[in-house]
């Protein structure tokens, strides 16, 4: 019996080469984020990231095109975890409630200090800020597709698209409101829940 024959249906059949590449990419991203938080975005060079990651500068460009790409990749990892939880949701739960609870749960994993540091990083590059807006638009499309995987009735698709739109809007508004708060800032998870509650009260 082959090694892969023991895998459950749908289990990953990731090969050794793919696994090593994924592990290297994750190591670069984790190293870079640590350096960004310690030394600032502009104060961290690609050469330092490569050296600390145990790779050459040339190898770095096999995984990422720029420092901006690293931060967006880190954000993408966060969103993939959100979608993994969403796919486990019972279709008996109202979609907007499910998205709210999952968004809030994942946001609550970060301390205010961590959120301040990440927010500062994401705003330290004009190019990154521009790309972040495009990233939000992409995530709205992905969120819609994941919602359709849980709530499969074709007649619900228009409503699910609206759930994706307003949910991402709530996330963006919360991030902006939180950034503009004076210290001490309210925890973003709490602010996000309040944003969703305000949204539901107007529906």
From TrEMBL:
Q: Does the keyword Transcription apply?
A: yes
Cite the entry's keywords alphabetically: DNA-binding, Repressor, Transcription, Transcription regulation
Please give the InterPro entries that the UniProt record associates with this protein.
Answer: DNA-bd_HTH_TetR-type_CS (IPR023772), Homeodomain-like_sf (IPR009057), HTH-type_TetR-like_transc_reg (IPR050109), HTH_TetR (IPR001647), MftR_C (IPR041347)
Tree of life domain: Bacteria
DNA-binding region coordinates = 45-64
In this protein, which residues make up the domain named HTH tetR-type? Answer: 22-82
Q: What is the protein name stated in its UniProt record?
A: TetR family transcriptional regulator
Q: What broad taxonomic lineage does this protein's source fall under?
A: Bacteria, Pseudomonadati, Pseudomonadota, Betaproteobacteria, Burkholderiales
């Amino acid at each position: 019996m082959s090694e892969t024959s023991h895998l459950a249906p749908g289990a990953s059949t990731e090969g050794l080469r793919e696994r090593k590449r994924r592990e290297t990419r994750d190591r670069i991203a984790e190293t870079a984020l640590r350096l960004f938080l310690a030394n600032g975005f502009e104060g961290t060079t690609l050469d330092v990231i490569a050296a600390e990651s145990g790779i050459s500068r040339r190898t770095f460009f096999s995984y990422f095109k720029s420092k901006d790409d690293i931060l967006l990749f880190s954000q993408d990892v966060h969103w993939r975890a959100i979608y993994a939880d969403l796919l486990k949701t019972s279709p008996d739960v109202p979609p907007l409630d499910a998205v709210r609870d999952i968004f809030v749960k994942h946001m609550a994993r970060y301390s205010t200090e961590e959120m301040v540091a990440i927010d500062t990083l994401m705003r330290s590059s004009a190019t990154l800020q521009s790309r972040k807006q495009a990233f939000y638009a992409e995530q709205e499309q992905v969120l819609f597709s994941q919602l359709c995987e849980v709530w499969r009735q074709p007649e619900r698709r228009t409503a699910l698209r609206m759930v994706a739109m307003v949910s991402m809007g709530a996330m963006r508004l919360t991030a902006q409101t939180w950034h503009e708060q004076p210290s001490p800032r309210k925890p973003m998870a709490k602010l996000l829940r309040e944003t969703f509650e305000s949204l539901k009260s107007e529906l």
